[in-house]
Fold MarR family winged helix-turn-helix transcriptional regulator.
Amino acid sequence: MSPFDDPRLTAMGLLAEVMAGISEKMSPALAGAGLSDVEFETLIRLARSPEHGLRMSDLAAQTSLSTSGITRVVDRLERENLVVRRACHSDRRASYAVLTDEGRQRLLGVLPQHLDDIETWFTGLLPPEQLADFLSTLRLIRDVVRPCATAGVTEPAKVE
């Protein structure tokens, strides 16, 4: 067997192809809403966070961006009034990015098409039990390779 036929290379290649293909399919709806992929990712992470905000360092940790990269993205979103920065009361060096009502409305405008695209090009291709297993597998891998990906997110209280 050739070293180029290693199934690990196949796994990485397939993952890269899938991500590139899904991004390509979803980009038109985001562009129609005036958002880049990274701007949408930033806004949706804020929308799904407690009080619709995250410390800038936690936001950087959750995305594929450096601290300076997330600062530039938040600067652009702030100029469009989609987010605001708020000072951290307990740490003067830290600040929060917080979703504005205008940012929430921009997301709500693109969300139906985005969800349709996810259903068409990703989740809808798998039966529910296979999707549940796949999501569990993705979380397992994510937690090893990006342990800070859930930084700033609190777990919901368990109801007993």
Observations:
- The chain has a mean pLDDT of 90.
- The helical segments are 7-32, 37-47, 56-62, 67-79, 101-121, 128-145.
- The longest strand covers residues 83-87.
